[in-house]
């Protein structure tokens, strides 16, 4: 059975929406992801570090549409691993674990990989929104479109814009 490593933030978990919502609640200003195209997350969200270090941030992130359903379908034909560089934000470890248990109950604890660098990941396929993770990966790579990577050429990675595209490619 082929294996897939799937990133959490920006692929399954809509951190952009979470940050937009937090920015609005603090400032009353509505940010639009279309205004952030080509900007790093730190450039787009001036209070990024404050927010990702806020208790509850990772546990309450909304789902990216289609991810839950497509990952469930993929899990019937592939061995799925959810891989997150969670050690960068220590509060996120428990919160991400809880979030996955809530939204992806079919993913067991053995399929949750919380790490620092993803260069140790050795699956057949990786789906991620950051080049730093895909560029060091040896298997087939899919770049999940997010505002920070939208202007960039995907290079050797295949760009996917949503979960329906992933479903068409990997499930036919």
Structural description of this entry:
One of its GO terms (biological process) is pyrimidine deoxyribonucleotide catabolic process. One of its GO terms (molecular function) is 5'-nucleotidase activity. It comes from Cyclobacterium qasimii. Belongs to the 5'(3')-deoxyribonucleotidase family. This is 5'(3')-deoxyribonucleotidase. The two termini are 16 Å apart. The protein is built from seven helices and six strands. It has a single domain (3-14, 58-171), classed as Rossmann fold (3-Layer(aba) Sandwich), CATH 3.40.50. The longest helix has 13 residues, at 15-27. 32% of the residues lie in helices and 15% in strands. It has a six-stranded parallel β-sheet. It is of the alpha/beta class and 172 residues long. Helix 4 (67-74) runs parallel beside helix 7 (163-171).
Tell me the domain tally.
1
Total beta-strand segments: 6
Approximately how much helix is present in the residues? Answer: 25-40%
Quick check: average pLDDT? 95
- As a whole number of angstroms, the C-alpha radius of gyration is 15 Å
Apparent shape: globular
Q: Characterize the largest beta sheet: strand count, sense, and whether it forms a barrel.
A: 6 strands, parallel
Low-confidence stretches: none
Percent strand equals 15-25%
| Terminal CA distance | 16 Å
Protein name: 5'(3')-deoxyribonucleotidase
GO molecular function: 5'-nucleotidase activity
Pfam families: NT5C
Family: Belongs to the 5'(3')-deoxyribonucleotidase family.
């Amino acid at each position: 059975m082929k294996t897939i490593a799937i990133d959490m933030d920006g692929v399954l978990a809509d951190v952009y929406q979470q940050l937009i919502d937090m920015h609005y609640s603090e400032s009353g200003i509505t940010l639009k992801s279309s205004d952030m195209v080509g900007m790093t997350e730190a450039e787009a969200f001036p209070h990024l570090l404050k927010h990702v270090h806020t208790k509850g941030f990772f546990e309450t992130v909304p789902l990216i549409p289609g991810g839950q359903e497509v990952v469930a379908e993929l899990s019937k034909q592939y061995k799925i691993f959810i891989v997150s560089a969670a050690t960068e934000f220590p509060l996120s470890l428990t919160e991400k674990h809880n979030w996955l248990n809530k939204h992806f109950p079919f993913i067991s604890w053995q399929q949750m990989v919380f790490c620092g660098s993803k260069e140790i990941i050795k699956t057949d396929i990786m789906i991620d929104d950051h080049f730093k993770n895909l560029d060091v990966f040896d298997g087939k790579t899919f770049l999940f479109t997010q505002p920070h990577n939208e202007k960039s050429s995907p290079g050797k990675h295949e760009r996917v814009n949503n979960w329906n595209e992933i479903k068409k490619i990997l499930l036919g």
